[in-house]
Structures are given as structure tokens and as C-alpha cells.
């Protein structure tokens, strides 16, 4: 059980003009699939369409300040399917853990590159950030998930290493990891699943020995699953906020039927996540918490946002002159958005349940 506190709190959003900010645009990528603040202004972002981590100013529109390619470290050798599908991250000190989707292609095909848990460590010298890989990427998590009887994920994973039918695609019945966070004491990572949703509940899986997995190449040890009611939504992003003493979760549909929403959760398995807001004008995929403040940054997946371009500017065949962002040939034209939300805390005499 994750128990964070014994006080009684409600989390509310005050919708003043400054509570939900306007967008900043960040260029060079379309899908901000994972993000972590290195300080109160610099954010490191992954795009699930490539294997590059990009450093941005979170509060300014602009291109990446620095980029860190990871192909070699992640052992990507298949040039026809190079992306590892990085979907989530979380930070413990200067060490950042990253996880890929562990899911098949949209056609249900097995892709060896998509099964990675890995870590990087950042340093700052003379005002500049640097990033280095730590340990070795773990590719055996999928085997442990498959064998663990508490999860009953065999039917969502299919035969390991074998191509399957489209029903095992991540937006059908297939496994899809999109969340990663850490317990308040830093001892346990929690892996959030967007899919499947057994009994319409989202799954959170404890990973008890992440440091040993990465640094000593031992097999992952998983705890019993936690089931969260996100109103038929899976976990697209999850992060713990020390100042709120709560987790914040972006819940999103497995496909596209529901709007995504932001929830707060105490960490108590007996309590239900509480809806904070729904996203009407944004497809959120990552959140990151600004330390020692009540500010949360939400980053978008704008891969399918359309742009009016010529056929020569897009990698997809255009029928109407409109190209999706992720198909643009010129990466400097690609962009995603970030917005900040100020979440205030209000004491109350009732339990969160």
C-alpha cells in the first residue's frame, strides 16, 4: 500500500485567469511523451517517435537548447523500426528512470526496440546541463510482466517475440505502458498502464528494485497491482508532488472516445482518484511537477495536429494538403505545447474517497 499522509485534504483548482496558463510552443518534436524538470525552468523531454532527449526552457517558446541521442545506448539496430517508443520517466535526485511502451506496433507486430527500462544521470557545470547514460538498459521487464500471475497480462502481451494480429495493438487489447513515478521515500517505482483496463480500472504496478535492475543487471521484482478508477481511462502520465503530498495523474482513453482528464490521488489504495479538470483543447501526454511550488506543467501530444504544407514537406501522402505534425520532414517545423496549472490546497474535515 502506498500511504502518503494521515491529514485530511481536498485538492482544488482555482480557475483564476492565471490558474491555467496559455501555451508555450516547443519546436523539434510533436509528441512530448515523457518530461522531467531538472530545475524550475529547464525540462528534459522525450518524443516517442525517436530516441532523442531534448532540453527546453519550460516557460518560453523556442527550439531545444540541447539534444541527447540514445540510439547506441539503447541498442537500436533495426533501421526500419528504430524508435524505442519512450513513454514515461521519473526522477530520483539526479538520476532519471525512463520506460518505453512495451507495446507492439499499431498492427500488432513485435518490435524488439520497444522493450526498455533505462536510466540517465544529469549534471550541471558552468550553467550548462549534461546527460549521461547510467548502467545498462533492461529488456527483461516484459518477461516478468508475462510470468507474473497477479497481472493476468498474457492475453494482452501475446507470444513473446512473435508477431500477432491487430487486436494486440496498444490501442486495441495490447499492453501499453505510459506512466512512471516514484514513491515519496524513493524506494519504489510505479509503472502506469494505459492499456489494458480490467473492469475499466487503470493498473499501477510497483517495481521494487529499479536501482539494482539498472546498475546490477538483476531481474525486476514486481509487487501486486493497484487498480485505480479513472472513469474508463488509462494512465497517460503520473507524478508525485511533495508539496501537495499527492500524486497527479493524466487519465486518457485507450483509443480516442473520451477526453483526457487530470486527477489527484492520495496514494492510499482504498481511496479513489479525484477529478480536477478535463482537457478540452489539448491532448496531454506528460506532466511534470515544479519543485517547491504548486505548479504543474502539462505537455501535449500534437503528433496528429494538421499543417497545410506541400507534398514535398511531408512523409505521408497528402490528399487535401494537410500533413500531420509527426510526418513533417523538417523537424524545426514540428512542435508541441506546454501549459501550467496552479493547484491550490485546501484543508477540510472530510476524507478523500
Note the topology.
Elements: E1 9-12, E2 24-27, E3 34-37, E4 42-46, E5 52-57, E6 66-69, H1 71-74, E7 86-92, E8 95-100, E9 117-125, E10 128-138, H2 141-147, H3 154-157, E11 176-182, E12 189-195, E13 202-207, H4 210-216, E14 226-228, E15 234-241, E16 246-252, E17 261-265, E18 274-278, E19 284-289, E20 295-300, E21 306-308, E22 322-324, E23 335-342, E24 344-347
Antiparallel strand pairs: 1-24, 2-23, 3-4, 4-5, 5-6, 7-8, 8-9, 9-10, 11-12, 12-13, 13-14, 15-16, 16-17, 17-18, 19-20, 20-23, 21-22
Identify the quaternary structure here.
single chain
What is the CATH domain class? Answer: Mainly Beta
Radius of gyration: 19 Å
| N-to-C SSE string, H for helix and E for strand | EEEEEEHEEEEHHEEEHEEEEEEEEEEE
Whole-number total of structural domains? 1
Average per-residue pLDDT, rounded, comes to 91
How many helices? The count is: 4
What is the approximate shape?
Answer: globular
- Structural class computed from helices and strand pairing: mainly beta
Cα distance spanning the termini: 15 Å
Name the helicity range: under 10%
Side by side, the strands of the main sheet go 2-23-20-19
Estimated share of beta-strand residues: 35-45%
CATH-level-2 architecture: 6 Propeller
Q: What is the strand tally?
A: 24
Amino acid at each position: 500500500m502506498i500511504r502518503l499522509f494521515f491529514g485530511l485534504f481536498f485538492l482544488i483548482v482555482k480557475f483564476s485567469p492565471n490558474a491555467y496558463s496559455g501555451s508555450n510552443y516547443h519546436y523539434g518534436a510533436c509528441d512530448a511523451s515523457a518530461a522531467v524538470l531538472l530545475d524550475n525552468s529547464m525540462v528534459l523531454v522525450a518524443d516517442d517517435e525517436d530516441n532523442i532527449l531534448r532540453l527546453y526552457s519550460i516557460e518560453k517558446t523556442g527550439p531545444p537548447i540541447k539534444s541527447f541521442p540514445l540510439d547506441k545506448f539503447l541498442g537500436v539496430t533495426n533501421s526500419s523500426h528504430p524508435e524505442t517508443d519512450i513513454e514515461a520517466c521519473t526522477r530520483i535526485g539526479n538520476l532519471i528512470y525512463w520506460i518505453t511502451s512495451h507495446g507492439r506496433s499499431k498492427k500488432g507486430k513485435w518490435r524488439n526496440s520497444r522493450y526498455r527500462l533505462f536510466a540517465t544521470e544529469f549534471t550541471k557545470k558552468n550553467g550548462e546541463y549534461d546527460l549521461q547514460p547510467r548502467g545498462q538498459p533492461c529488456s527483461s521487464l516484459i518477461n516478468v510482466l508475462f510470468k507474473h500471475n497477479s497481472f493476468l497480462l498474457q492475453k494482452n502481451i501475446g507470444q513473446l517475440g512473435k508477431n500477432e494480429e491487430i487486436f494486440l495493438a496498444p490501442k486495441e487489447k495490447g499492453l501499453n505502458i505510459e506512466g512512471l513515478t516514484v514513491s515519496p521515500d524513493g524506494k519504489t517505482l510505479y509503472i502506469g498502464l494505459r492499456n489494458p483496463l480490467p473492469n475499466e480500472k487503470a493498473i499501477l504496478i510497483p517495481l521494487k528494485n529499479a536501482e539494482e535492475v539498472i546498475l546490477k543487471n538483476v531481474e525486476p521484482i514486481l509487487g501486486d497491482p493497484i487498480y485505480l478508477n479513472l472513469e474508463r481511462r488509462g494512465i497517460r502520465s503520473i507524478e508525485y508532488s511533495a508539496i501537495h503530498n499527492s500524486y497527479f495523474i493524466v487519465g486518457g482513453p485507450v483509443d480516442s472516445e473520451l477526453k483526457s482528464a487530470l486527477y489527484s490521488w492520495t496514494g492510499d489504495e482504498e481511496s479513489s482518484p479525484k477529478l480536477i479538470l478535463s482537457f478540452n483543447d489539448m491532448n496531454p501526454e506528460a506532466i511534470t511537477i515544479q519543485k517547491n511550488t504548486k505548479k504543474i506543467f502539462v505537455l501535449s501530444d500534437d503528433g496528429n495536429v494538421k499543417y497545410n504544407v506541400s507534398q514535398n514537406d511531408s512523409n505521408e501522402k497528402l490528399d487535401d494538403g494537410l500533413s500531420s505534425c509527426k510526418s513533417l520532414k523538417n523537424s524545426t517545423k514540428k512542435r508541441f505545447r506546454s501549459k501550467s496549472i496552479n493547484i491550490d490546497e485546501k484543508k477540510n474535515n472530510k476524507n478523500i474517497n
